[in-house]
Write a structure and sequence with these properties.
Length: about 350
């Protein structure tokens, strides 16, 4: 070993020693704060968002932003676990993108609660069998996840956070590429890889299943089949990587919501989601939305969805910038509620951090 290499390693050892002392001190203080909360929520997404934004503003590299947030999310997660290991419900089994989103948001230290459907994810948290839920709400390629929107209208849960997860699909199998006769995946994933599959797997049967992880399980059991799923799902079921990053749009991203039984305080950069309905009269939607413009509130999303109670009746899902406690947002919402036939505030929460 050269003297220069030895010197660098000694410096790393010294830095590691300092990091351990500092992380331990941080954990002690976090535990003390937990004791002072007197039973308040252990997970404070607004506070964690503020911490991450502050750190990113000071990051001069060489680590990219995603690495910085991943490191500090893990630290914060281990500190939270000194009070309680949070139970997080998501669409299972292990290996789904929902699990990946949960690990990203909660730093990987939580008790995973695997559910068989979106309905079960919601029910599990509503019944107090899990602390938080992670559900997909929209994809940059395929659009809204309809069942999630339907359940948001009905649930008592509140949105307390969001996660944006870059989604990279892969073709996985135990068989050779030439022997594949059937491909399993979730319907959304098949849609996101539609053109690649047309070019490279033309004529091969595509079968939609409940989740990408379920697709990998089936592909692991049936010779001559493949799955479109994440690399992690393939590793869990012992599948080989036949082709990677087969999504048609390299910017393919899915947005997930974090749901809980508690509200979230302002973080300084927030979003508010609501669902509403209007009376069936000419110009009703324009009139309904005008309080936003009149109060200088920016709308970032407007999505219509058929109402399950009757034909040709619709509700509108809206995202706006700001927290419901912000003065101009509160004023706009009050005016909107006076005009709408139905309004439900789904939650105010921090805008997703990298």
């Amino acid at each position: 070993m050269s003297d220069e290499l030895k010197k660098c390693r000694e410096q790393i050892d010294s830095i590691d020693d300092q990091m351990l002392k500092l992380v331990s001190e941080r954990a002690r203080l976090a535990h003390e704060i937990g004791m002072l909360k007197n039973g308040g929520p252990i997970y404070r997404p607004e506070r964690e968002a503020q911490v991450l934004r502050r750190l990113l503003s000071q990051n001069d590299g060489p680590l990219p932003e995603a690495s910085v947030t991943a490191i500090f999310r893990t630290v914060m997660s281990h500190c939270r676990a000194l009070e309680k290991e949070l139970a997080v419900a998501f669409l299972g089994p292990l290996g789904t993108y929902s699990e990946e989103a949960a690990n990203k948001q909660f730093g990987g230290v939580s008790s995973p609660v695997q559910c068989a459907s979106f309905d079960e994810v919601f029910r599990t948290v509503e019944a107090g069998q899990a602390d938080y839920a992670v559900v997909p709400v929209e994809n940059s390629t395929e659009g809204a996840v309809g069942r999630t929107l339907d359940l948001l209208v009905q649930t008592s849960l509140k949105i307390c956070g969001e996660v944006e997860l870059p989604v990279h699909h892969n073709l996985l199998s135990k068989s050779d590429l030439s022997s594949i006769r059937k491909i399993y995946s979730h319907a959304q994933s098949l849609g996101q890889c539609h053109e690649w599959l047309n070019r490279n797997m033309s004529g091969i049967e595509r079968i939609a299943v409940a989740s990408n992880a379920e697709a990998t399980r089936l592909a692991a059991e049936e010779p001559g089949t493949a799955a479109v799923a994440s690399k992690r799902a393939g590793e869990l079921f012992g599948l080989n990587l036949l082709a990677e990053h087969i999504e048609d749009d390299p910017r393919n991203t899915t947005r997930f919501l974090i749901l809980s039984n508690h509200d979230v305080a302002p973080s300084g950069k927030d979003k508010t989601s609501l669902v509403m309905a209007t009376r069936n009269v000419p110009g009703a939607v324009v009139q309904l939305l005008s309080p936003l413009a009149e109060n200088g509130v920016s709308m970032t999303k407007l999505e219509s969805r058929p109402l399950y109670t009757g034909m040709w009746e619709y509700v509108f899902f809206v995202d706006i910038e700001g927290h419901r406690d912000d003065e101009k947002v509160a004023k706009a919402l009050a005016e909107l509620e006076a005009r709408a036939a139905f309004v439900k505030i789904l939650g105010s929460y921090p805008v997703a951090v990298v």
